[in-house]
Design brief:
Blueprint (H helix, E strand, L loop, with lengths): L16 E5 L9 E4 L6 H6 L3 E5 L2 H6 L5 E4 L12 E7 L10 H11 E12 L11 E10 L2 E10 L7 H11 L1 E9 L2 E8 L2
Parallel strand pairs: 1-7, 2-3, 2-5, 3-4, 5-6
Antiparallel strand pairs: 6-10, 7-8, 9-10
Helix pairs in contact: 3-4
This protein binds S-adenosylmethionine.
């Protein structure tokens, strides 16, 4: 994200730094972290209680050790129905094509036990309008209990955009109940429960 050779003054992309506070959450059994490569934030929080799946093997290699890591597509997961009590998606949905959001959320719903929890952290991305740049960049300071991770996520910026409301509507249609919602600095956190 940063460095002296880039096109930006001081070598840093001009997007503002935003803070995400990730608090510990109750869990029993395995936690499925979908798109858990890269910084592996949920793995840092929950260690070997996490099964971390990602489409990219190299992203899984980059993530810290601790979780069980598996190459897998969020749109078609290999787990049996009702395998997990908690599923997390930490800045994963923004990396999916908007047309795949419903499939990925449906898969999360399928592998969750009844009354299981889906936790989402992600960014509001307004629809791209020229002369907006081709990439949408989010720079975040992730505050975990006892550690701060400084990172940036970037995706191709499309005309669709995304926001919390869209994910709430999709999740509701699938059979999730909204249990918590917070938004700050263009970032949001959603907690859903799978209806029995
Ligand atoms: C912002 S990055 C990683 C964020 C990560 N949760 C963390 O803690 O840093 C989003 C991840 O989603 C993964 N991804 C994209 N499409 C996917 C898919 N269809 N199935 C699983 N993972 C996917 C990418 O490979 C990437 O590692």
């Amino acid at each position: 994200m940063s460095g002296g050779d880039g096109p930006y003054p001081g070598g840093e992309h001009p997007a503002p730094w935003r803070t995400v506070v990730v608090r510990d959450f109750p869990s029993s059994g395995w936690i499925l972290d979908v798109g858990g490569g890269g910084e592996g934030v949920i793995g840092r929080l929950k260690g070997d209680r996490v099964v971390s799946v990602d489409l990219s093997e190299s992203e899984l290699h980059d993530a810290p050790v601790g979780p069980l890591k598996m190459v897998m597509d969020a749109r078609s997961m290999q787990f049996l129905d009702e395998s997990f009590a908690v599923v997390t998606m930490f800045f994963t949905l923004m990396y999916l094509d908007p047309g795949d959001h419903l499939r990925a959320l449906s898969e999360a719903h399928r592998v969750l036990k009844p009354r299981g929890t889906l936790l989402i952290w992600d960014a509001t991305i307004p629809p791209r309008r020229p002369p907006d740049p081709e990439l949408f960049i989010v720079k975040i300071l992730v505050e975990l209990p006892g550690a701060t991770v400084r990172t940036g996520y970037g995706v191709r910026w499309t005309e669709c955009g995304q926001d919390a409301e869209r994910f709430c509507a999709l999740a509701r249609d699938i059979g999730f109940r909204l249990r918590g919602r917070s938004e700050d600095q263009g970032l949001f956190h959603l907690a859903f429960e799978k209806s029995e």
